[in-house]
Amino acid sequence: MKAVKKIVDEKKEKTPKLAKSQTKSLGKSETKSLKSADTKKLSVSQTRAKKIKHSYKVKDAENALLLKLKDGEVVIEMLPDIAPNHVARIKELVRAGFYNGLKFHRVIDGFMAQTGCPYGNGTGGSGKKLKAEFNKHPHKRGTVSMARSMLPDSADSQFFICFADCDWLNGQYTVWGEVTSGMEYVDTIKKGTGNNGEVSNPDEIISLEVIADIA
């Protein structure tokens, strides 16, 4: 059966398609400007950086994130080689504290958990759209990728973590990271029961940090 296409207004955002047969458009996009677009990287000694890298077993502490959820810590290793601009922007937002306390507003069992909207309903972002960096990295269990609208260059701050392989998303969304530990805690994020994964009283990001910045 061919996928059913749904035409949406260019200003509306959508989340990744479900099994080639469903599409979801978010409400009218609103944005939330950061108080400071530029934040300085915290200084970390080489010795401390090595200890952090060893503790979390990451390849590069500067390009790795520590996501704290209600049930435990999740390590996300970023992929600057294939999505340098998205990685740079995500780190900028992380260092500004943008993601702390944001909700997993759309969570579909067996598919993905989405977050990154400052309004908790999928309608907002940080106010800066990113040019697409589509790549050949597959959407598989643990993949971290950007949500976007029908326009390729419309990703902002919302992203999703795949619970399982989602091959039909390949090449259509910008993959920028992979969960390398703590996926069992991602699995326990509260699932949605509402329209297309809408979550009632959703789980939140307790904190999101660049591992190199952890003191």
Q: What is this structure's SSE topology?
A:
Blueprint: E1 12-18, E2 22-28, E3 30-31, H1 46-56, E4 64-69, E5 72-78, H2 84-95, E6 106-108, E7 112-115, E8 124-125, E9 143-146, E10 148-149, E11 159-162, E12 175-181, H3 183-186, E13 207-210
Parallel strand pairs: 3-8
Antiparallel strand pairs: 1-2, 1-10, 4-5, 4-13, 5-12, 6-7, 7-11, 9-11, 9-12
Taking the sheet with the most strands, its summary is: 8 strands, antiparallel
Strand content: 25-35%
Overall spatial form: globular
Separation of termini?
53 Å
Helix percent band: 10-25%
- How many helical elements? 3
The CATH superfamily title: Cyclophilin-like
Which consecutive residue ranges, at least 5 long each, have pLDDT under 50?
1-13, 20-42
Number of domains as seen in the coordinates: 1
CATH overall fold name: Cyclophilin
By secondary-structure content and strand pairing, the structural class works out as alpha+beta
Helix and strand sequence: EEEHEEHEEEEEEEHE
Q: What is the class in the CATH system?
A: Mainly Beta
**Looking across the biggest beta sheet, what order are the strands in?**
6-7-11-9-12-5-4-13
Number of strands: 13
Can you name the CATH architecture? Beta Barrel
Mean pLDDT: 84
Can you tag this structure with a few keywords?
alpha+beta, 3 helices, globular, Cyclophilin, 215 residues, 13% helix, eight-stranded antiparallel β-sheet
Q: What does this entry show, briefly?
A:
The chain has 3 helices and 13 strands, in the order E-E-E-H-E-E-H-E-E-E-E-E-E-E-H-E. By secondary structure, the protein is α+β, with helices and mostly antiparallel strands. It has one domain: Cyclophilin.
